[in-house]
Amino acid sequence: MAVLSLNGAEASAPATTFRWRYVAMVALHGLFAAAIFVLLMETGGQITYNEGMGWDGAYYAAMTSDGLASGTANTALRPLVPFVNRWAYAVLGNAVAAFQLMNVIYSALFAVGLALLLDAYGARPVARLFFVATAAVSIATAQMMAFYPVLIDLGAYAAMTFAIVLVLRGSSLAAAIACVVAVLSREFGIAVVAFGLVRGVRQRVPWLRLLATYAPACAVFVLLRVVISWADPRDASLELVTAERLAGNLRFWQDPLFAGLFLYFLVTVLGGVSLALASRPGACLRVLWNEPEWLAFTGLVLAATAVGSADLWRYLGFLTPVMAVLFARLEAGWSGWRRPVLLAQSVGATWLTQRPFGAMDLGRYFRDWFPYYVVIDQLPRGV
Hints:
With about 375 residues, the chain is an all-alpha fold. The protein has helices spanning about 15-45, 55-65, 80-85, 85-90, 95-120, 125-135, 140-145, 155-170, 170-185, 190-200, 205-230, 235-240, 245-250, 255-270, 270-280, 280-290, 290-310, 310-315, 320-330, 340-355, 360-370, 370-375.
């Protein structure tokens, strides 16, 4: 029996010994993922554009070194990771190095959150380790940040995963704080709030408790946008992603190639894990139907990705928590000889679709990871 259960109860005696064993197990998942991330940085190389800061990364670097007001209106909506990274910048004196160090830490925290989530849904040890390893080598959840370190996504993945774990634990105060942290890390954090609200309604949590838990995150989500648009209306009108701009991105769906790439990235975003889930759509839909909070979370992330832009890999990566739950449920049905065979197939599929530990350069970065920018000839300057 795991320490973390879906109703927040702790395991039975002998609790003390078991808890320390459990903490050690979870910590090992984090160390394992961090070691893989360091290896990815060493073997894959690093983006060279703009002294290693890239495009959006230059604004995140400025927010880290010069203050949160140094970014654009759009990057200012995601202040958490640049703010947290400031201590590393103070020590190292270089924004790229600070993000590299912090990404190693975020990769460990992300893995710990996933291990807790998998355990909450009864995943066996081999399934936990396999899922964490897959996330640690996949493009959207690791390779992208190893190559292009000055991004906030890995920190946001960790923040959102821990927020979901705390919502599952049922602690109102911890969940409220975690949801605020999640929405400050990335816009996708609002999907965690929706997850918690739907789960609370399903479990008949009193409305006042739901309001106290999730209203702060909703208020922060809205007020941050209002404050930024008031601070510099002209800049905000150009930079903020408005509903009108998102609706304009629907034009991409008129191109069958974009729809095909969306589907390909969706079923391969976590290599063999997502391919295994795609092979059992009925089983996945049953889990989502039985726990509609996961359906709400998935629907919001998919909707945001569909109208976001051509950055499909990095947006679909926010589905990792729900894929952990679906994989835990799916793997539980594998028995006998099927388990090692299916896991071996998933390892092979991950290796073929993610190609970890290979050298990366700017040309391949767009050709392999963001190919639709190549198709529509909208590569950033300098490529």
